[in-house]
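Here's what a typical entry looks like (histidine kinase):
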Amino acid sequence: MSWLLLWLALAGCAQPVPEPTYRIGFSQCSMEGPWRQAMLAGMQRELSFHPEAELVMLDAHDNSDLQNEQIRRLVKQGVDLLIVSPYEAAPVTPAVEEAYASGIPVILLDRRITSQHYTAFVGGNNVEVGQVAARYAARLLRRRGSIIEILGAPGSSATLDRHRGFVETLRDYPDLRVVGEVTGDWRDKFIKPALKKLLLAHPDVSLIYSHNDGMGRGAYEVCQELGRTRQIRIIGVDGLAGDVEGIDLVRRGRLSASLLYSPGGEDAIRTALRILHQRPYKRENELGTMVIDSTNAVTMQQQTDKVISQQQEIEQQQSLLQRLRATYSSQQVALYVSLASLLGAVVLGGLAWRSARRNRVINRQLAVQNAKNDEINHQLLAQNQEISQQRNQLEELGERARADTEAKLRFFTNFSHELRTPLTLILGPLEELMGGSANFTSPQRQDLRLVRRNTQRLLQLVNQLLDFRKIEVGKMAVHATEANLVSFVREIVEVFAKPAKGRGVQLRFLPDEPVLMAWFDGNILDKVFFNLLSNALKFTPDHGLITVTLRRNDDDQRLQVIVTDTGRGISEQDRSHIFEWFYQGDQGAVAKGSGMGLALAHGLVRLHQGRLTFNSQPGRGSTFVVTLPRELPEALLSFEPPTPVTFALDEPEPLVAEVSDGPEEAGSETLVLVIEDNVEVNDFLARKLRTGYRVQTAINGTAGLELASNLIPDLIVCDVMMPGLSGLELVARLRADWRTSHIPVVLLTARGAPEQKVEGVQAGADLYLTKPFNPTFLLESVRTLLANRDRQREHYRRQLSVEEATTTTPTTSADQKFLADLTAIVEANLTKTDLSVEEIARSLGVSRMQLYRKVKAVLGTGVSDFIQSLRLTKARELLLDESLTIAQVAYELGFSSPSYFATSFRTRYQLTPSEFRALHTSPTH
C-alpha cells in the first residue's frame, strides 16, 4: 500500500500543470508587398516568446467581400481574440461589429473602421506621416517649388489620411504647390506611364511625395529615364530594411528620405496578450514616425542588422529550450512506465525502491533544468528590453547626427563666404597694381607675385573644402563623357613640366598606347591627377625622377594611371591614415600641406567608381595607382562636351582683370545704388563705379530698399548674404513694387553653386556674379544693362506715337500696371488745363521725384511730355469727328488756347489740325 501511495505522489509531482492555450485569429487584407510581410514577421517574432498562444492567419488578397467572409469564419472557429487589418474601412465594418458583439476582443491593426466597436487600435498615424512629409519637403526645397504626389490605393484609409496631412500642412508654405497627382495601388508598375506624362507636362517639378517606398523607387526609375534624377528629390514612406527597401534606397541616393511607418506586428501581439491575460492595456496605440535620410540611414541599417542578429540568437536559445523540454517529456514518460512497473511488481519491493530513488534523482535534475529554463526566459526578456532601449538610443543619436550635419553645412557655407570676400579685396587691387603702369622695382614685383600666388593657393584650399563638403553630403555628381584618357593625362603632366625642369626633376609620361578611350568626368579626374602630381613634385628631391604610366588592366575593362616618385616615401605609422581628411603626417623638411589633397583624391576616385591605392618604401619613394573603369553606369554619362580645365603653378593666371581708373564723370545723370554689408567691398565697388556714374551706398538690405524706393536709381549692385534682409529677398520686393520693378539688379555673392545662381535669377536678378569678381566684367555688365534699358525706353517712346492712346506691354507686370494706372489717370483728367505732375503723383501715392524717375526710366521721357503725347494722340481721334470744331477739340483736351493746340499739333505731326482733318475726312480720301 505504501508503494502505491508513493507512486501516486510521484506521479502528481511529475505531471506539469498545463498552461492555457490561446488561439489568435488574424485577418490580413493582403500579404503582397514587403511591408505586409514585415508585419507578419514581427508578429511571429513576438509570439516566439509566448508558446501559450498560436496565430491563425487568413489572407484576403485585397478583397473586402472575401475579408468579411474570413472574419466570420474565424469567429465560428472559436478564436479567443481577433486581429483585423482592414482593406477598406466601410465594407469591413459590419463583420468586425458582429465579432465584437459576440464577445470576442477585436484589435484593429494599421487601419481603422467606421465604427467605435472594437477593443483596441494599433498602428501609425497616417495624418502625421503626411504632415512630416510636407514639413521635410519644405525644408528640402527651402519653402519654394512644385510637387507631384503619388497616392496609394483609392479608398484606402492610409491613402486618404496621408494625402490629407500632406495637403493641410502645405497650406503653411504658400510657395510650395502640388501640380499633379498620380494614383497607384502601392506598386510601382501602375504609376510609371502617368508619372512620366505628368513630369513631361511640368518640367519645373522639384520633388515627388510617394505614399510608399516601392512607388518611390518606380518614380526614381522614371526620373532616371527622363534624365532628371539630380533635379527631382523623392520622399517615400515605410522605411523598411532590406535590399531595395526604404533604408537601402536612401543609402544609395534613390530616395532623399523615407518616413518610418512601423508595421506594428510586435505591438499588436503584445496588446493581444495583455487583453488575453487580463492585464491593463491602452485602447489607442499610435506608433510614431521619423525621417530617415542620408544622416541616419546607415545608423538605422546597423540597428536593424543588430536586431536580426540578436533575434537569431534568441531563436537558437529557444530551439535549445525546446530540446530540453522534449528531453523532459521523454524522461517523464519513462518515469510513468517505471512507476507502473513498480505497481505491478509489489513483490519486488527492493527493485521498486531503487527505481523510485532513481526517479527522485531525475526529478531533481529536471527541477534544476526547469530553473535554468526560467533563467533563460528571463534573460531573453531582458535582452528584448535592452534591444528596445538601444533602438530608442539609436533614434536619438540619429536625430543628433542630423542636427550636427546641418550645423556643419552652415559652417562650411559661412566659412566659404568669409574667405571669398577678403579674396575679392586682395586680388582685385593686386591685379590692377601688377597690370598697371606703376614703376615697381624688381623685388617689389616679386613680392606682388608672391602675394598673388599665395592668395590663389588660399582660393584652392577653399575650393577643396567645398569639394570635401559636397562629397560628404553626396552633392557632387559625375558627368562622364567619352574621350582619350591619354591626351587628358598628358595635358596635366605638361603643366608640371616647367616647375619640374626648374628643379632638375625628370618627369616622364609613358602610356602603353597613344589612344585609350574611356568614359570619365574630366572635372573630377583633373583634381585627382593634379593632387597626385603636386604631391610627387613636392616630396621628390632635386634631380629626382617622377614617372606617370598609363596602361590597360589585364581584363581590358579597367585602366590604370600610375604615378611613381623617388621621394622619401611614407612612414609606417602614416600609411593607415594617409587618406584621412586633414591628416598631416611626418613630412620632414617639406612645408606642411592642408591634409586635404590625398583625401580629396581618394574620395573623388571612389565617386568615379574607381580605386586609389598606394605602395611606398621609406627612402625609396612612393607609387600611387588610380584604377578606373572604362565603362560607367548610364546614370553617370553625359553627352555634352566637357568644360576645358586649365592649371597654373608658378605664375597663376590672374583671377581679376586689370581696371584703369579714369576721371570721374561728375556730370553723369545715371545713378547706381551699391548695397553691401562689408564696408571694404562697399567702398571698392563705389570707387570703381564712380568713374562713370553717380553712386549711392547702403550697408544693409533694409536701408538699401528704402533708398531704392526714394531715389529710384538706374541700377542696383547688391550682395546676397546680408544680415536682416538678404539680397534675394530684396530683389523680390523690388520686383513686386511698381516704383522699382524696372531697375536692373546685379547680385554679388560667394555662393557659387549652380542651383544658387539659378535661385538668384529666378528671384529676378538680371546678373549673378560670384566673388572674387572681375571689376572690368562688372563695369561692362553695368554698361550693357543700362544700354539695354535705353533701347527699351526708345521702343516705348516710339510706341507713344502710334494711333492707340495706350502704350505697349512692358517686360514686367509691375511696369505694365504702372503705365496702365498712369495712362488712366491722365486720360481721366485730359480736360484740365492745369493738370500738374504733383497732382498725378498724389493720385499714384508717390512723390514728384519718384514719379519723374520712374517715367524717365521706363519711357525715357518726362511726365509732361507723356501727358502732351497722350493729348495729341487723343486729338487725332477727336479731329475725325466733324461735329466738333478745332477749338472744341483743343479745350476738350486741356489746351489753354486753340493756337497753342495748333502749334503743338503741327510740331508733332508736321500738319495743322485743319490740314489733318481735311486729309482724313475728304471725300476723295
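Residues 349-435 form the longest helix (87 residues).

More examples are in the samples folder.
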